[in-house]
Amino acid sequence: MSGNSSERRDTRIRDQQQQQQQQPAAAAAAAAEFALLQRNYERLKDLLEADAAAAAHSSHCRWQQQQRQQQQQQQQQQYRYHGTAYREQWWYQEQQHQRWRWRQWEQQQQQQQQHWRHQQANNWRRWEEEYWRQQQQRQQQQQQQQQQRQGLGISFASAARGLGIAFGLSVAFGLTAPSRSKRSSSSSSSSSRDALQQQLLLQRELQQQELQQQQRMRKQRMLSESRRQQLQRHMKLPVDDPLNSAARSSSSSKSRSSSSSSSSSKHLHHGDAGDLGSSLAAEVAAAAVAAELLEDPCCSAAGSSNSSSSNSSSSSSSSNYNAPRDPRAWRDQLQQQQQQQQQQQQQQLRRLSTSRSSRAR
Fold first, then answer.
1. Which of 162, 191, 198, 274 could be bridged to 286 by S-S, CB 3.0 to 4.6 A?
2. Residue 278's domain spans which residues?
3. 243 part of a folded domain
4. Domain assignment of residue 170, yes or no
5. Is 236 inside a domain boundary?
């Protein structure tokens, strides 16, 4: 009995040990089986979802195809039963749209034409104002030149008379007092030379001023003519060519300036060539020559003033002939010109009176 009990104990212990050894292996196997089952479940779920999505997409596509087919069928039916009416309605709508576009285009064209006409009217007014301003400036400059030339002629004549009187007095004083004749002759010769030099300097300054004024006038004329030609071409008006008259006037002014410069050079040569300090006879001859030479530029100045006045009258007449004639504007312009001439004459008289009074002092 004791032997059987011991055997039983041994078997029990062995069974317990085997069970203890098999428990972790069984747990690991169970965990692996559970993980495999979970993976299979997830795969099956994904497959089912994909099948459901494919079925839904296919059903949606079929529904869309059915809708399109129905729309096409309806359109075909409408075209069959209502084709003529639909065409007429479409044509009517297209005509209305075309008419609306045509009206818009006409309105734009009218607005553009009105704007262009307004611009042209403004440009024409500006050009007319500039034209009248330039005409007034030209007339004022011509009047100033004439007044300067007249003043030069008067000054030359008065200087010649004064020199003649001075030379006569010097000759008389030399005859009465022969001992002082040399001193008086030297002083008269120096005074005559100084007067000639001053007159020549004045002539050169006036020539330079005239040249500058002519250049300014040429530029102004060119600008005004270019603007006028552009406006006339734009307005389709006949284009005039007053440049020939400007060229002629410039050539005449150049010839006058060259003649005056040559005469001034001759005056210098004659004035320097005379040997005034040699004797009384030489002084008298030099005085006569100087008086003659001083009288000549007066004539030339008078002739040039006459020619310039004739040129100014011709240019003013031609400009007035080419200018747009408005009786009221013409009358106002003539009144303004007369007033300006009177004012300039008064200023000249005042200057002459002041110059004479200063010389007398």
1. 274
2. 141-308
3. yes
4. yes
5. yes
> How many of the other CB atoms lie within 10 Å of CB of 352?
15
Output the pTM of the full model.
0.22
Sequence letter at residue 259 = S
Structure tokens at 162: 């004064």
Q: What would the pLDDT profile of 158-213 be if each residue is shown by its tens digit?
A: 666 666 676 666 666 666 655 555 555 566 666 667 777 777 777 788 888 888 88
Condensed to tens digits (0 to 9), the pLDDT of residues 84-115 reads 666 777 888 888 999 999 999 999 999 999 99
Number of domains in the chain: 1
